[in-house]
Design a protein that fits this description.
Length: 556
């Protein structure tokens, strides 16, 4: 391995160094370069932090590193922390700020850090950090080293960049149709442009277009099954477009089109309070900038999402999400048939959400159906990665219904969802070919104040909302709901409000039944519900809402 690396280094020196000419440090200060400026760098840690040896990533407490960095450190046993550490983008911050301030100390320290990393982390070395040459750190580190190369001419740096390009070009390491693949393409393109290597440039561009088509569908929905990653991909595509232009290449039309379509998906997945709905690996505290949105208040994405709201630009608007589509992959959870509901300025039904990528029992639980608002089939095992079909939809201004079905537990299960706006009501009818049980997760801001006769009342101060469960065949109350909060054996009744955080929150576990009709009425603790045959009338604070159940398991 070392002989191959050495040969690669000699090739890099012979073929690339002649093209490599670092600009002299002008008396008036360094020149800003496209490789070092722009939006590719994270905001923290700052250059003064790095100079002080204080590294703070992911909101975790700062870690002190010495002049001779220990590249095998893993203070939090957190692979996301390791990834950021090994990416060296914090070193790149020093170079970018050197260009802005002219402080030679920033560049000198950047050289020390990068040279130390290269010396201590040979590919395949016995003492090399296990995460140093993982595919994502390679991708994110490449632009940082390219940035440094604009001010430093050194064989060790040129050889390292050539090795990075070789690994980024390797199809066996490429993550097609994934945000990591996009980062790999950006890294390879930056190296290819820096050294005028058309082969690397062409490979990066061709992969970037193909990968974007795999990752973003024609409607602009991200296929990674976590809408918050649409924000990341949108931002990184912006970096990709800048890199392409810096390289003097034309931006491929297909790439630009997919990039332009993403904002509508991001906006659709943003609740009236400005925070993204926490689906898949999406924290509940992600607040996007303002993006363009569709004129439609209800949007169905074939990738597996329904997003609906009363109106745009109104914090009191009702809002809901429904999940269906392809089986779980990438950043998705087993959340098919799941719903969330926001009304009257409050999150009511939410998801357990995203905690971290660490392989802990809690993380594994957050991926399961039991961490979502779904029907589970009693006594049957989940068949992971099962697709769910949206079989029926009816969309009107103030009322929408959707019916979904799958065989995720080996038997048919069907969920029909009705949302009525202005007179705010959500109704959910669940049926299956075997006994089922519903799970409903309330927002942590809500406290259960009553649980009796199939009716759960939650409160936030003086405000109330009610969840009623009925047998659709008889309209009799489905009694026996259990409210669980903060349980650990097994996990239930938890919500993650942000990265590496969790808080106890009420979860309703329904009784076992052949079918269940669940009605959520915001703004009241006493909604009268009456039935006449298949017609159900809900007396909401705004007036009566009538819905109809069918023998096939649908609502209208």
């Amino acid at each position: 391995m070392r002989r191959r690396t050495s040969a690669l280094g000699l090739l890099a020196v012979l073929l690339l160094t002649e093209l490599f000419s670092a600009p002299a440090r002008a008396a008036t200060g360094p020149v800003h370069t496209p490789e070092c400026q722009g939006d590719w760098l994270p905001a923290t840690p700052t250059s003064p932090d790095v100079m002080d040896g204080k590294l703070s990533f992911l909101g975790l407490p700062a870690v002190t590193v010495g002049k001779n960095v220990n590249w095998r450190m893993d203070p939090y046993k957190n692979r996301s922390w390791e990834m950021v550490f090994q990416s060296l983008r914090w070193m790149g911050r020093l170079v970018a700020d050197y260009e802005s301030t002219g402080k030679d100390a920033y560049l000198d320290r950047a050289v020390e850090i990068a040279h130390d990393w290269v010396a201590d982390n040979p590919l395949g070395g016995r003492t090399t950090s296990k995460y140093a040459w993982a595919e994502h750190p390679i991708a994110l580190r490449a632009p940082a080293l390219v940035c440094l190369s604009r001010h430093v001419s050194a064989d060790w740096l040129t050889r390292s960049l050539a090795l990075h390009a070789k690994l980024l070009s390797d199809p066996r390491k490429y993550e097609a149709g994934h945000n990591h693949g996009l980062d790999q393409d950006i890294g390879l393109l930056r190296i290819g442009c820096r050294y005028h290597n058309k082969g690397w440039q062409n490979l990066a561009l061709s992969r970037m277009v193909k990968s974007a088509k795999l990752d973003i569908d024609a409607q602009g929905a991200l296929r990674e099954q976590a809408p918050r990653y649409a924000m990341y991909v949108y931002d990184r595509l912006g970096v990709a477009v800048d890199t392409i232009k810096d390289c003097g290449r034309a931006v491929p039309a297909d790439l630009a089109t997919r990039w332009r379509h993403l904002p509508e998906h991001i906006s659709a997945a943003t609740q009236p309070n400005g925070y993204m709905v926490p689906l898949g690996d999406g924290p509940a505290d992600v607040q996007p900038a303002s993006f363009p949105h569709s004129d439609r208040t209800v949007q169905v994405f074939d990738g597996g999402y329904v997003f609906g709201r009363t109106a745009w630009g109104d914090a009191q608007s009702a809002y809901y999400s429904i999940r269906f589509g392809p089986g779980q992959k990438f950043h998705g959870h087993e959340d098919h048939l799941g719903v969330t509901y926001y009304a009257q300025g409050r999150s009511i039904l939410t998801e357990a959400g995203f905690h971290s990528y660490e392989n802990t029992p809690y993380r594994r639980w957050t991926l399961t159906p039991e961490a979502h608002n779904v029907p589970v089939i009693v006594g049957r095992r989940l068949r992971p990665h099962t697709a769910t079909a949206l079989t029926r939809e009816s969309i009107h201004k103030d009322r929408q219904t959707f019916t979904l079905t799958d065989r995720a537990y080996g038997v048919r299960r069907t969920r029909s969802v009705l949302v009525n706006h202005h007179r705010d009501v959500m109704a959910v009818l669940d049926t299956a070919a075997a006994p089922l049980r519903d799970l409903w997760h309330f927002d942590p801001s809500l406290k259960v104040v009553s649980n009796a006769k199939g009716t759960i009342v939650v409160a936030d101060g003086d405000w109330r909302a009610t969840l009623v469960q009925l047998s659709p065949a008889t309209c009799a109350p489905a009694r026996g709901q259990q409210v669980v909060s903060g349980r650990t054996g097994p996990y239930q009744g938890w919500i993650s409000p942000g990265y590496m955080r969790k808080t106890a929150a009420p979860a309703v576990v329904s009784p076992t039944a052949k079918a269940l009709l669940t009605i959520v009425v915001p703004g009241t603790d006493d909604p009268a519900v009456t039935c006449s045959g298949h017609t159900v009338t809900v007396h909401s604070p705004g007036g009566p809402v009538t819905l109809h159940t069918s023998a096939s398991g649908s609502l209208s």
